Amino acid sequence: MIDIFTTGGTIDKVYFDANSQFEIGASRVSEMLAEANIRDGFHIHELLRKDSLDLTAEDRDCIVSAVRSCPGQRILITHGTDTMAETADALDAVSDKTIVLFGAMQPARMRVSDAVFNLGFAWGAVQNLPSGVYIAMNGEVFEAGAVRKNREAQRFERA
């Protein structure tokens, strides 16, 4: 069984038009899993609906607490890309689970998005990695504490 915690971020952003602000909508993870023909073997838990730039220390404590108290050993977390590495570092205190964070550079609701690929890649990664905290983005797996987002290149890389 894989537990999936949703926290918001670009993957769940909704844009109404070019002149409006975005908002974080309901998670599309269950729809994306269905598109991938994954229909069982998971539980989805909504924790937050926030842009990762708006996450506070208390929010990260909430994420760590939810993961720590979850009976499952394999955890996926949707997360905004801007502060994903910080949350991965905070989760490093949980040592007995395999935790994989993923997100998207473009919202899942957009026609062209990396969201579905990143979810599928993270799904495979969480089932095959040993205990630890990882970020799975754009076909690469990074260990917590050894990754950073390259905003200019719009990708993650080893720190």
TrEMBL record:
Transmembrane segments: none annotated. This is Asparaginase domain-containing protein. It is an enzyme of class 3 (hydrolase). Keywords: Hydrolase. SUPFAM superfamilies: Glutaminase/Asparaginase. PROSITE patterns: ASN_GLN_ASE_3. It comes from Marinobacter koreensis. Gene3D superfamilies: L-asparaginase, N-terminal domain. It comes from the Bacteria. InterPro entries: Asp/glu_Ase-like_sf (IPR036152), Asparaginase/glutaminase-like (IPR006034), L-asparaginase_N (IPR027474), L-asparaginase_N_sf (IPR037152). GO terms for molecular function: asparaginase activity. Residues 2-151 form the L-asparaginase N-terminal domain. Its EC number is 3.5.1.1. The keyword Amino-acid biosynthesis does not apply. Pfam families: Asparaginase (PF00710).
